[in-house]
Amino acid sequence: MKKITMKIDGMMCGMCESHINDAIRNVFKVKKVSSSHRKGETVILSENEINEEDLCAVVEKTGYKVLSITVL
């Protein structure tokens, strides 16, 4: 299981969180995705490897800026 933590700039509310979560779910097969505008981060749990460049592109298409990605 991979845990991907993304620091994201621009989330202001719960709708921002939902927008990012839906965008990720629509493109990648993930077990769980949750975002927090207060923490400015999105956490993804996936059984499969996810390409970081593709992930950044999906999030940035929604209008938010990816500051960093950490994979554990």
Describe this structure in words.
Helix content is 33%, strand content 36%. It is of the alpha+beta class and 72 residues long. Strands 2-3-1-4 form a four-stranded antiparallel beta sheet, covered by helices on one side. The model has no long low-confidence stretch (mean pLDDT 97).
Keywords:
alpha+beta, Alpha-Beta Plaits, 72 residues, four-stranded antiparallel sheet
* Total domain count: 1
Main sheet properties = 4 strands, antiparallel
Proportion of residues in β-strands: 35-45%
**Which structural class do you get from the secondary structure elements?**
alpha+beta
Oligomer: single chain
Can you list the strand order of the major beta sheet? 2-3-1-4
Kindly state the number of beta strands.
Answer: 4
CATH architecture: 2-Layer Sandwich
Task: Give average pLDDT, whole number.
Answer: 97
Q: Please identify the top-level CATH class.
A: Alpha Beta
- Report the CATH topology name: Alpha-Beta Plaits
Helix-strand topology string: EHEEHE
Shape label: globular
Relative helix content: 25-40%
How far from one another are the termini? 9 Å
CA radius of gyration is 11 Å
Uncertain regions spanning at least 5 consecutive residues? none
Number of helices: 2
